[in-house]
Hints:
- The structure is a homodimer of 126-residue chains.
- The first copy, chain A, is of the alpha+beta class.
- In chain A, 26% of the residues are buried.
- The termini of chain A are far apart.
- Helices cover 29% and strands 40% of the residues of chain A.
- In chain A, the strands form 2 sheets. In chain A, strands 1-7-6-3-2 form a 5-stranded mixed β-sheet, with helices on both faces. A two-stranded antiparallel ribbon of chain A has the order 4-5.
- Chain A has one domain (2-124): Nuclear Transport Factor 2, Chain: A (Roll).
- At the A-B interface, strand 2, strand 3, strand 6, strand 7 and helix 3 of A face strand 2, strand 3, strand 6, strand 7 and helix 3 of B.
Amino acid sequence: MLKAFYRAYIDCLNRQDWNELGRYVADDARHNGRPLGLSGYRSMLIKDFEDIPDLRFTIDRLACEPPLIAARLLFDCSPKGNFLGLRIDGRRISFAENVFYEVRNGKIADVFSVIDKAAIEDQIAK
Amino acid sequence: MLKAFYRAYIDCLNRQDWNELGRYVADDARHNGRPLGLSGYRSMLIKDFEDIPDLRFTIDRLACEPPLIAARLLFDCSPKGNFLGLRIDGRRISFAENVFYEVRNGKIADVFSVIDKAAIEDQIAK
């Protein structure tokens, strides 16, 4: 159940179907402690796709236990300028994000995300 | 079942009970793609406790769905020298680790860990 919900959410992101985002994300959603709300959450994602034109979310691993969804996401993309404070300038990088979602009333209410910045640093140091 | 197993594993780490580690970790365990095996895994943990004398693993969130365990761990500790390539020098830092474990034949066989390095950078920049 949560798995199907989550796969549909990720598909919504990859389609950049921002009008549908409210089916998955709560009006008062928080992301890493920040009270973004649905509109701030949407703005964050739109900016991500602006900064990373070839952004695509790929689910590598998924463990669901209500009310939690835990996902390991893989990315293989080319941020245009800076990313996480690192100068990428269009180079292609690959990295993982391990992220927990707390689902309340059928929507994502709280997100705890960690991106593997050290892996990106290793790649751009080469 | 996996929850109790995982809590016992974390308790084993916090006790630094290295003789018991093989009850939880497979002989051919991998960690972030590295084929450490049980002995290499043990060595990694022993070094962690040497580098961070007040290291303690605290489970913040836990989602188990066989064969996966997904945990968000919180740390509040004082690494002696460098940590993740950052000069800490005994300062107290707090950070999260989001980590997936694949369990095979009742033991941790594969680990995919991401530590929130950006959060540590923010703290030491202050």
